Amino acid sequence: MIYLDYAAATPMDPMVQETMQPYFAEKFYNPSATYMAAIEVRRDLEAARAKVACIMGARPSEIIFTAGGTEANNLVIRGVMGQFPEGNMIVSAIEHESVLKTAHHYECKEAPVDAKGIIVLSDLLKVIDDQTVLVSVMYANNEVGSIQPIHELGQAIEMIRRERMRAGNDLPLYLHTDAAQAAAYLDVHAARLGADFITLNGGKIYGPKQFGVLFAKAGVRFSPQILGGGQERGYRSGTENVAGAIGFAKALEFVQKRRRAEVERLQSLQKLFIDLLEEKISGVIVNGSLKHRLPNNVHITLPGTDNERILIQLDEAGILCAAGSACSASNEEPSHVLRAMGISEADAQSSLRFSMGRQTTEDDIRKTVAALASLLYT
Asked: What is the pTM of this model?
């Protein structure tokens, strides 16, 4: 079997699984309990938080553990907009559904992207007004892999903040970036990014599924969405998932340490993949930016084909890929990401996403292109 859907889910790293194992059995204690065994588990939990914070260039108190990226995105959007009901927010047109669907419960404007899937920074800045309190732009897109200029956006937002202060407008303006797809390949240091909120997801970095992190910069104001015992500094009540925290910290450490070497390896495979596609398949279109793109992503359109039929045929051949975001796979509507890039409905329904990962080899790529060509020409 050739697995090419790492953007949907990554297999857990065996070392991550090993570090988590004790917390399912002998270290099962509730970290809020007061006896020594539980206090030791609490120390382990806080050590994991400190490790994540160190990697992100943050304080441990700025790291909130959640049950995945979707919850983290909901927490920041609902939390900020609930705190400032008079405000509005801006999102890019290609955000993950957990951002778009949550944002549209509030006064929200969408900023466009260009044909490569990159935000048009000048257009986004034009729609920020005196009542805008939150801008949410993903770091790297989950469908076409386009990498957004978050650092430049952060700098521009900081200038707007200063102008507001001079004008006597004390309404905050926060920048959130969903970095779920980016953490294995890009720098997630909070200060270098210039974001006030950053979402990470364990299931995308060879860590535990249903575990996420929200970085929330000191001093930001937002409301909790899950109430109860006051865990996670009151922002996310509920008994902590200690095994998940331990595993997430180890997974993030691993991917960030290996990041540069893995990016170089995957960029080589990505180039081979695209070169072979263009050589073997007439009329293939590679969607998205070739320059500002995740190294593991190859997104193509095969005009005139039915992507669902091809997916089934590839599956039968032992090749697993996707037609778009796994989170909206049951939705028969064309991808909102491709529509935002100006791709027609017909071409959107003729598109496939291949996302590579740690186990992908050159042989996998050659076999995949050969199988795809065989399906199309026989």
From this structure: 0.95
